[in-house]
Amino acid sequence: MHMPADLYADSPTDARAIALVEEQLANRNWGILSTQGYVLGIDLGVYGLRAALIDMQQQTYASAHAEVQSTNPYAMTQDALALAHDLLAEYEVSLDKLLRVGVGFGGPVDTQRGEVRVAPRMAGWEGFQLRDEVEQAFDTVTLLENDANLIALGEAFFGVGKDISHLFYLHLSSGVGGGLVVQDRLYQGSTDIAGEIGHVAVIPTPPDQPMVTLEQIASVSGLLQRARAAGLETDNLHDVFGDDPIAQRVVAETADLLGLRLAQVSALVDPQLIVLGGIIIRLSGAAFITQIAEHMHRYHAPHIAHPLPIVASVLGADSVAVGALALALSSLGD
Predict the structure, then answer these.
(1) pLDDT tens per residue, range 155-187
(2) What percent of the chain has pLDDT over 70?
(3) Which of 7, 184, 260, 293 is the most buried (most CB within 10 A)?
(4) For 40, which DSSP code?
(5) What is the CA radius of gyration of the chain?
(6) Average pLDDT, stretch 45-74?
(7) pLDDT tier for residue 333 given thresholds of 50, 70 and 90
């Protein structure tokens, strides 16, 4: 099955993201260690590699990106490190000036051990000590987190959630995941699986039958498979959000299910804002978000119903790298 390339795979950082990051650098207090020096963010995703750099003294932001040449853990990590080293060299940053490094990975990770738990779309990563590889390369304290959590934190610190303290982020892409920010802190849960909304059943299933998860229904491959099962022969995600009646029915059913899940999330954690992002949101646009929001509000009982905005993420191509920077910056005050 053909999987569409990420709409941001080869995209430069857009001017809006730069402005948002630099604005918040000036407006926030990042702790006594942050008055000078640099913070680095690295994103290792199946769709591309990105590195981002903040100059704390000048309060400026820069980034670089590269295509994935190999998904082998060691080769891909070395390519990401080379990209980051090139960015440091471009701005004449020596390693002794580097305060922290944040790293984002496209799959569940163990933040305490600093290792990858599973990489659903890249073989051979299970148990890979990613944090140690990066920490040794830069001789700097390094923090590891999964991509959805980092996008949540980045949007909370620098993006659409910059003025609030409680945010839930839902990532709809080749996988489905989430991230929760509570009182300006990423909530990871007791075993680092908080936010993994895509990997639990959405309907009751007999013990002898495979469960059906949100990721199987609402991911890129899930949408395409459901569209084909309904009679729309396509391997192009654009067609799923087109004018065909079958596609519109699949999208409407998906919006209904996502609205129900987000109603349950909002009742459980009571966020001030829900942010949606990923390939599916970038391609589908505002109409799909509106559908989801309408269903979510319909699934609230009247006595707990309240205004709860659902909006699209705004950090664009560098969203995971920006989130990695936010994770590193938040650690400076610890």
Answers:
(1) 999 999 998 999 999 999 999 999 999 998 999
(2) 95
(3) 293
(4) E
(5) 20
(6) 94
(7) confident
- For residue 2, what pLDDT is reported? 42
DSSP 283-327: HH-HHHHHHHHHHHHHTS-TTT-----EEE---GGGHHHHHHHHH
Which residues partner with 172 through β-bridges? 176
Residue 5 predicted with pLDDT over 60: no
List, in order, residues 6 or more apart from 19 with CB less than 8 Å away.
Answer: none
pLDDT at 3: 46
Average pLDDT, the chain: 92
Structure tokens at 22: 């630099």
Put the strands of the sheet holding 273-277 in their side by side order.
185-187, 176-182, 166-172, 273-277, 310-312
| Residue found under tokens 């059943």 | 201
State how far Cα 126 lies from the chain centre.
20
Res 1 pLDDT > 50? no
Beta-carbon-side half-sphere exposure of residue 160 (alpha carbons within 13 Å): 20
**Where along the chain do its domains lie?**
15-156+317-332, 163-313
Tally Cβ neighbours within 10 Å of residue 178. Answer: 24
- Its CATH architecture, for the domain 163-313, is 2-Layer Sandwich (3.30)
Asked if domains 15-156+317-332 and 163-313 share a fold, the reply is yes
By DSSP bridging, strand 176-182 and strand 185-187 are antiparallel
Fold adopted by 15-156+317-332: Nucleotidyltransferase; domain 5 (3.30.420)
How far is Cα 218 from Cα 259, in angstroms, rounded to an integer? 12
Q: Tokens 């938040």, residue?
A: 330
The pLDDT of residue 323 is 97
C-alpha torsion sign, points 80, 82, 85, 87: negative
Q: Which of 3-12, 22-31, 52-61, 126-135 has the lowest mean pLDDT?
A: 3-12
Measured between its terminal Cα atoms, the distance across the chain in Å is 46
Rounded Cα–Cα distance for residues 246 and 310 (Å): 26
CA distance 227 to 137: 45
- Which residues 6+ apart lie within 8 Å of 326 measured at CB? 102, 150, 153, 154, 156, 157, 158
